Amino acid sequence: MVRSMTGYGKAEQEIQGKKITIELRSLNSKQLDLNVKLPMSYREYELELRAEIAKKLVRGKVDLFIFVETTKEEAPASINKDVFSSYYEQVKKVSDELGISLTNEPVVQTILRMPDVLHVERQEVTEEEVVALKSAVTAALSEIEKFRAQEGAALISDILSRVSRIEDLVTSIEPFEKGRIEVVKTRIANNLAEFVPQANIDQNRFEQELIFYVEKLDITEEKVRLRNHCKYFREICDAEEAPGRKLGFVAQEMGREINTLGSKANDADIQKMVVQMKDELEKIKEQVLNIL
Q1: 73: pLDDT confidence band, cut at 50, 70 and 90?
Q2: Count of domains in the chain?
């Protein structure tokens, strides 16, 4: 199954008065570029989470966000009353000496921001919480993989339709080939007759040189190789789990054959079709960059 590197997954778990939210986002990238943002209390599990994500997502620019909200009514921090009282007495003393009137609410807010007034206890991560964390990450990975599969199906459908278009254009070239050769032969013969008297032309040698020149314009080999590349492109899509890189290489080879067709065309109608092939191929290359 062809998958895109673009995806989004989200999952939540609630346990022990906490709500754990996992968000995974990914875009296309040549390698796995994993950025992790999580609470300090989960730092010791970061490497394990990275390994799990790398195993599942393989490639892409991936962002993992882990948020933890407290659902308990208990305050997450306690006020150190002695320190608060000390700060208040000092502020009151200074204000009295300077004749500054105190407004209770602003003073309280200011003192709460002073060092050591608020005491935050470090909460230990329990085994149950770790299980919930990993479960949420697994669920988010499942969601992002579904997203990638849906995007991949849409991508490959568009890409293969363009491959078919290139194959159709190759077939459309064939009616113009024979006429093109005759035009070239006639043009060369007329140009030669304009500068060299007919009596001085060795017809056998002229025919040999003409055959040699026409062989250089033959595009049969390029058409066969281009068709084979298109066929191989489809086979990779059907057989590979992560075909992105390989499809990129095949698209480059398709481009070589199309360019050679253009350089050998020597015909306005064929050149137009080659330009259409190049247009389709550029769109294929852009889409392939998003495939895993």
Answers
A1: low
A2: 2
* Residue 230, in any domain of the structure: yes
Specify which residues 9 forms β-bridges with. 24
Local structure of 62: helix, strand or coil = strand
Q: Where are the beta strands (DSSP E) in 1-156?
A: 7-15, 18-27, 32-37, 60-70, 77-79, 118-120
Instruction: Decide if 26 contacts 63 (C-beta within 8 A).
Output: yes
Which amino acid belongs to residue 136?
A: A
pTM summary value: 0.75
Q: Identify the domain containing residue 184 by its residue range.
A: 152-288
Q: Are residues 103 and 222 in the same domain?
A: no
Exposure string of 190-206, with b = 16+ CB inside 10 Å and e = fewer, is eeeeeeeeeeeeeeeee
Cα torsion 14, 15, 16, 21: sign: negative
Q: What's CA 103's distance to the chain center, in Å?
A: 57
Residue 287 — pLDDT band, cuts 50, 70, 90?
very high
Edge-to-edge order in the sheet of strand 18-27: 7-15, 18-27, 60-70, 32-37
Provide the b/e sequence for 32-41 (b: ≥16 CB within 10 Å).
bebebebeee
Q: Is the pLDDT of residue 117 over 70?
A: yes
Provide the mean pLDDT of the chain.
87
The closest of 126, 12, 131, 19 to 69, measured between CA atoms, is 19
Give CA torsion, residues 143, 147, 152, 158, to 10 deg: 160
**111 and 164 in a common domain:** no
Maximum CA extent, the chain: 125
Is 256 within 8 Å of 15 (Cβ atoms)? no
Phi, psi of 33 (to 5 degrees): -120, 95
